[in-house]
Amino acid sequence: MTAAVALGLWAPDKVFQHAALMTSGAIIDGELRGDLILLGGGDPSLDDQSFWNLAAQLRGAGVTRVSGRLVVIPAPFGPLGCETQDRCDAMHRSDRSYNAPLGALGVDYGNWCVMVRRLRRARPPRCRAAP
Asked: 2, exposed or middle or buried, with CB in 10 Å at 0-12, 13-18, 19+?
């Protein structure tokens, strides 16, 4: 049923936009002096490899440090509410991928985490995706 509705709304060759990185500040001497913004585009194929590609593009732009925040925007759809109480309850206490919130920035079926650890002050933090 979902596929039929989707084909009714979009052409069969519809392509979703990939997630994109944006900034709110200037890059000076390798440091992004502002926020790093991750904007979702509704791409259903987004996975941890996509994040490695985004990180490589960021590094290719000369960014080695970010002094601001990581801001995640699940646009263009934004967060959706739940239509029934049991669905709302499940979203707050479930660890199942099918209970993930809906949005345009679902990764690996809604199951992903990013671990950021600060090491010694002389070294940059380590980031690791754990799908």
From this structure: exposed
Rounded Cα distance between 95 and 91, Å, is 8
Q: H helices of the chain, where?
A: 2-9, 48-60, 85-93
Q: In this prediction, what percent of the chain has a pLDDT beyond 90?
A: 22
Whole-model pTM: value is 0.61
Asked if residue 19 lies in contact with residue 43, where contact means CB atoms within 8 angstroms, the answer is yes
DSSP string, 11-43: -TT--PBPPEEEESSEEETTEEES-EEEE--B-
Please check whether residue 42 is in contact with residue 56, taking contact to mean a CB–CB distance below 8 angstroms: no
Could you tell me the two tokens for 3? Answer: 């596929």
